[in-house]
Amino acid sequence: MRKLSKTTYNNLITYGIIILAYILVQILLATGSLSSLMEGLLVPLCTYVILAVSLNLTVGILGELSLGHAGFMCVGAFASAFFSVNMQGVIPSDGLRFFLALVVGAAAAGIFGLLIGIPVLRLRGDYLAIVTLAFGEIIKNVINALYVGRDAAGFHFSMKDTASLNMAEDGQVILKGPQGITGTPGDSTFTVGVILVLITVFIVLNLTHSRAGRAIMAIRDNRIAAESVGINITKYKMMAFSISAALAGVAGVLYAHNLSSLTATSKNFGYNQSIMILVFVVLGGMGNIRGSIIAAVILTLLPELIRGVGDYRMLIYSIVLIVMMIFNWSPKIRAWREAHPLFRRGKRGEEA
Amino acid sequence: MGFLSYLISGISLGSVYAIIALGYTMVYGIAKMLNFAHGDVIMIGGYAVFTAVSVAGMPPGIGILVAVVVCTALGVVIEKIAYKPLRGTSPLAVLITAIGVSYFLQNAALLIFGSGAKSFTSVVNVPPLKLAGGALTISGETMVTIAACIVIVIGLSCFVKFTKSGKAMLAVSEDRQAAQLMGINVNGTIALTFAIGSALAAIAGVLLCSAYPNLTPYTGSMPGIKAFTAAVFGGIGSIPGAMIGGILLGVIENLSKAYISSQLSDAIVFAVLIVVLLVKPTGILGKKVSEKV
User: Which of A43, A240, B124, B140 is most buried, most CB within 10 Å of its CB?
Assistant: First the structure.
C-alpha cells in the first residue's frame, strides 16, 4: 500500500473526528441520553463549526483580521430564507429546495464578500478589522429597515413600513423589517449540518494545500516577497475572502432553516457574534482547522455543561476564556511548559 | 433652529465618544492592543456613580470621584492580571483576552446589579441655557459634556507634551525597546496609560448616563464600539484625532437620525467611516506609515 503523505494523514484524522462525533451523537440520541437542550444545540453547533472553519480561512490562512463574519452569515441566512419562503409552493421536493437555498445563500454571501473585499482588502491590520466590522453592522442595519412583499405584480420594496409597499390585496409581506422573515421551512437537521461541516472542511483543507492556498499563505507570511515572485496579491486575497464569505453564507442557510422566524438582532448577526467566531479561531489556533472545530464545539457546549452553577455560568465562561488564553499564549507559561516533561510530550503530539 | 439644536446635541454625543476614544487611542498607541473591555469600564463607572449617589446618598461630586477611583483601579488590575502576561505575543491573543475581560465585566455587573435597567439621576447640576428668546435650549448636560471634552483634550495634550511621564508615553509608543534601553520604566508607563484611559472612561460613563439615563450591564458596549470607530476615524494613536473623530461621528449620527432615518443612522455612520478610510487609509490625522522593503 502506498504510504499516505503527512498532510493527507492529518486531514483524514480531522474527517475521522467529525464522523466519529456524529456517530457518537447518533448513539446518544438513539439511547435517549441527550437532554432536549443539548439536542437543540446540535444544529447551532454545526453552524458555529462552519463559521469558525470559514473564518480561519480569512484570519489564519490569509492573515487578515475580519470582524464582520456574522454579516456574511446574515446575508446567507436572509437570502436563503427569502428564497425558501417564496419557493415553498413552487418546488415540491424539500431536499431540492433546500439544496437550491444553500446555493442561493452561499452565492449571495460570496458576491457580498467579493463586493466588500474590493475596497476592504486595500486596507491592512486594524483598519481592515474596523471596516469589516462596519460592513457587518451596515448589513444588519439595512436588513432591519428593509420591507419586501410580493403580489401578482411582482416584488415590492420599501425602507419605511409595510403599508408603503403599495401591494395588491392578495399580496404577502415576506420580509418585515425588524420582525424579519417568518415561516422558513425547518429543513436543517443534524445530519445535514454534519454533511455541510464535512464539505466546508474539505473545501478549506484542499484549498490550503493547493497551489492557490500556498500563494495565499505566502501573502500572509511576506506580502512584498510574495508580490516580487509574481503572485497576484489582489486575486488571491479576493479568492480567500470571498470563499470564506460564501462558507459563512452556508452557515447562515443552516441557521435560518433551523428557526421558524428569522430576525437580525445584534445577538445573532451583530459584531458580538463576529467576535465570538474569532474567539473560536484564535483559541483553536490560527490556521489550524481541527483546532477551530474543537474550540467551537467546546465553547458552544461549555455554557450548557456548566448550567449547574446557575447564574454564574457566563462569569465562569469568561474566566475560563481568559485563563485559556493566558495558558496558551503567555511567554512565561510557554517556557514553563517547554521545561515540564508532561506538557512537552503533549505539545509534540499536537505538532505531529 | 431645529438644525442647530440637532447639531449641538450631536456635538455633545460626539464629545462623549471623543472621551471614550481617547482611552482607546492611548492604549492602542502604547500597548498596541485593542482594549475591547474599555466600553465595559464605562458601564462600571456608571454603576459606581449610581451606587454612590442614588444608593449611598453621597453628593454628586464625591460620586464622580468614587467612579474615577474605582475605574482607575479596575483598569490597572485588568492590565496586570489579563494583559501583562501576554505582552509580546500575538496582538490577536491579547484581543481575545480583552473580549474575555469584557464578558467578565458585563456578567459581573449582571450578577451584582441585575439585568433590569437602572434609571440614573443626572449628576450634572447646571441650569439649561435658553438662547434666541427660548427657541433654542441647550441642556446643562450638553454644556458640561462639551466643556469636559475640551478640558480633557487640552489637559491630555499638555500632559503628553510637557511632563516627564507623558514624554515617556510617547517614547514607549514610538519604540518600546529603545525606550527601555533609555531607562524608561515600560511596565509602569503602560500601567499609567491604562489608569488614565480608565479614569477617562469613568468620566465618560458619568456623562453618558447623565444624558441617556438608562443603565444596564450592556450600556457600554455600543458606545464603546462607536468610540473605537471614532478613534480609527480620526487616526488611531492621535489625541486631537480622537476628538475630531468622536465629534464628527456624534454629529453625523444625530443629523442622520433627525433627517434621514433613525433606523439607518448606525449604517450611515459606518458607511461614512468606510468612505473616509478608503480615501485616507490611516484616518483623518493618522500618520502615514511607509514600508521598508
Answer: A240
Domain count for chain A, please give it: 1
Greater model confidence, A22 or A176: A22
Phi, psi angles (nearest 5°) of residue B118? -90, 135
Looking at per-residue pLDDT, the higher value among A112 and A157 belongs to A112
Q: List pLDDT tens digits, range A88-127.
A: 878 778 888 999 999 999 999 999 999 988 888 887 777 7
Position A24 in a domain: no
Strands A261-262 and A181-182: antiparallel
Other beta carbons less than 10 A from residue B81's beta carbon: 13
Residue type for A191, please? T
> Closest Cα partner for A265 from A77, A5, A121?
A77
With beta carbons less than 8 A apart as the criterion, state whether B267 and A141 touch: yes
By C-alpha distance, the chain B residue nearest A278 is B96
- Residue A146: CA count within 13 A, CB half-sphere: 21
- Please state the ipTM of this predicted complex: 0.84
B122, three cell numbers: 443626572
- pLDDT surpassing 80 at residue B128: no
- Residues A323, A327, A331, CA angle at the centre, nearest 5°? 130
Residue A159 contacts B where some CB pair is shorter than 8 Å: yes
pLDDT in tens, A182-210: 888 888 889 999 999 999 999 999 999 99
Q: Which of B86, B97, B264 sits opposite A145 (nearest CB)?
A: B264
Of B100, B273, B274, the CB nearest to A318: B100
Q: Which domain holds residue A117?
A: 41-270
Q: Are A61 and A237 in contact, with CB atoms under 8 Å apart?
A: no
